[in-house]
Write a structure and sequence with these properties.
Layout: E1 4-7, H1 14-21, E2 35-37, E3 40-42, H2 46-49, H3 54-60, E4 66-72, E5 92-97, H4 105-117, E6 123-125, H5 134-143
Parallel strand pairs: 1-3, 1-4, 4-5, 5-6
Antiparallel strand pairs: 2-3
């Protein structure tokens, strides 16, 4: 798989997705610093939530083949700016997370729309806990050119 960088709000599922992609046991742990989990760069949610820390994401993205914007479908708040994907100079993929906890289909559609407005394309809906959608996401990431 390509080296990817995951970014999104605190508790949106970044670390859980990293663990899922690496074939690890899923266990919650708070990400305090940028970490490498398998081929994934896991970033603290505070980097997205605090604009003063956004520079850290821009610098870290240089080491990634693709950037993943994650949006928890149970969280109506989004921290990605419209068109933000353009600043990374590499493919930006949207990932709607926690689909197994979605309060309804509108929540999934709303999360997808927020990611599309940020410039993520394509957008995948996944559950790291059930594995739903993860295979399609990894197949897409594997298909990206070197």
């Amino acid at each position: 798989m390509k080296k990817i960088m995951l970014m999104g709000r605190v508790s949106c599922g970044k670390t859980t997705l990293c663990q899922c992609l690496a074939g690890m046991e899923l266990r919650y742990q708070k990400t305090q610093t940028v970490q490498l989990v398998g081929d994934a760069i896991d970033t603290p949610g505070e980097y997205v939530e605090n604009r003063a820390l956004m520079r850290g994401l821009t610098v870290t993205a240089v080491d990634a083949d693709a950037v993943l914007f994650l949006q928890d479908c149970t969280d109506p708040e989004c921290r990605f700016s419209p068109g933000q994907a353009a600043m990374y100079g590499r493919p930006v993929v949207g990932v709607v997370t926690k689909t197994d906890l979605a309060p309804g289909p509108q929540a999934l559609e709303d999360a997808r729309t927020l990611l599309e407005l940020a410039g993520a394309d394509p957008v995948f809906a996944i559950s790291s806990r059930t594995g739903e959608g993860v295979e399609a996401l990894t197949a897409y990431l594997d298909s990206l050119p070197d």
